[in-house]
Structure formats: structure tokens, C-alpha cells
Amino acid sequence: MRSSNPVFSRRGFSRDNGHAGFNTAPQAGGPAVGGNPYAQGAGNPYATNPYAPADAQLGAPPQAPARTNVMTMDDVVARTAMTLGTVVLTAILSWVLLPVDPANIGKSYGIAIGAALVALVLGLVQSFKRKPSPALILAYAAFEGVFLGVISSAVSTYIADGVVAQAVLGTMAVFAGVLFAYKMRWIRVTRRFDGFVMAAAMGFLLLMAVNLLFAVFGGGDGLGFRSGGLGILFGVIGIILGACFLALDFKQVEDGINYGAPREESWLAAFGLTMTLVWIYLEMLRLLSILQGDD
Fold first, then answer.
1. Alpha carbons 217 and 81: distance in angstroms, whole number
2. pLDDT tens digits for 108-131?
3. Which residue of 5, 17, 49, 134 is 20 to 30 Å from 223, comparing CA positions?
């Protein structure tokens, strides 16, 4: 299973069994390694693993090795808190230091666009690196925060006061809801689920790109995907896609912990989760802006 998140899809924490239930026992007639990217050997996942337990037997379900440098849920939570904390801190600073008012609006928007481009480049660089770079990930978070701070300030000032707090609460609610549903196994991350999310995301982004081109060259709101009834519909779709990304990310994190991924991989988990939460927040902010702007 590969996540739609470009960070996780490159590394491939999980095996390609297409199920979220951690059916890690070897398949009949197939190798026991089961696609574990951290296992060695063609038959026994512990065959050449220097960190394997001494009593590991051929055909036994892979267990997290008893060593201190493996990724744990605490590691993922701590790194995600650091990354998201950087986003929030720089967003608050940019809101305060780069006011979106008539006297500074051009400067603020220019800095925000520049920060967004830098964040995009840093995110792409990290996505293709062989190993996670904490400094690069935190730098991405900082520039992303500058962009979000200016955009949030503009929306709060010119469209709907108080909408930012609502978008933050909405993003937290989506995160909590998806996490609860995933832990209860109401969401099954299968190969079909992954393919559907990927196809839907590609179609969504393509439509948004076409709408942007029409807006740039034709003026107005392009094809109307960002306002009115269509804007509300696509806002809801965007949030649902973000929720699906979260489910895929949770699956990848869970598999990484089960397979004994190195502790440094927790930075990739934090990076991927931050990207997904930023997506959800932006879609939530846009949807609420449309709804309150129409009142």
C-alpha cells in the first residue's frame, strides 16, 4: 500500500497487501518478508536483520524489533508537534508583522507568495531525498506558516471575521474524526481505496488548475469552482479528500511502527501529516469563507 501523500509514497512503509488490519503473516506459497522495506532476506524477515529477536522463527509474524532506534508513536507525535508548532508560530508572527491593510497589502501578499513557493520547493526536495532532514522539514513548516498567516489574516480582515478560528476547529475535528474512525476500523485502507483517492485527487487538482488558468486569462472566478454553489461543493470534496489522505497517512505510520522503521522516519511521518493538515485547513478556510460571504 502506498499513500497518496508524496512523502510516504516514496518510502513505502507498508506492505502491498492492500489491507489495514496488519495481516503480516506470510502468504501461502509466498515469501514471509511480505514487502517489509526494513527486513532482509528472501524468506525469513529476520534472516539477516541484526536487530531481530533471538527467538524469531521462520514464518512467525514480524514483530517490532526490541531496539532503541525504532520509530514509535511517541516519536511521531513529538515530531508532528514540533512541525505543526513551527507552522502555527510563524503563522502568528506573519499575521502580526505583515498586516494585510491598504498600506501593506502588496508587500504582505508578495511575501506570502514567495513563502509559498519556497515551501513548495523545500517540500519537493525533501520528498525526493533518501533520508529525512529535520532542518529541511522545519524550514518547510516555517515558510508554510508565513503563507498561511498572511492568507488567514486577509480572509479574516476582508471576508469574514472569526472564520480562521472556525477553520482551525474544523481541521481539528476532521483529524480527530478520521483518527477515531481509523482506530475503530470503520475505515479500511485497501488497495482499491488508495487507487480511488489517487484518481479523485488527480481529477480535483486538474480541475482547480484549469479553473486557475481561466481566472488568470479570463478574469473573474474562472469556471466558478471557487465561489457560489460549485465552490461549496468543491470545498466539501477537498475536505473529504484531505480526510482520505489522513487515513492513508495513519496506515503508513502504523505500518512503519509495526515493521520497526528507523526512528528518523518519524520526521517523514510528521512532514506528511503536516502537509495533509495544511491541505484540510486551506479547504476548510475557503469553504467557510464562501458560506459566510454569502450570508
1. 41
2. 888 899 999 999 999 999 988 888
3. 5
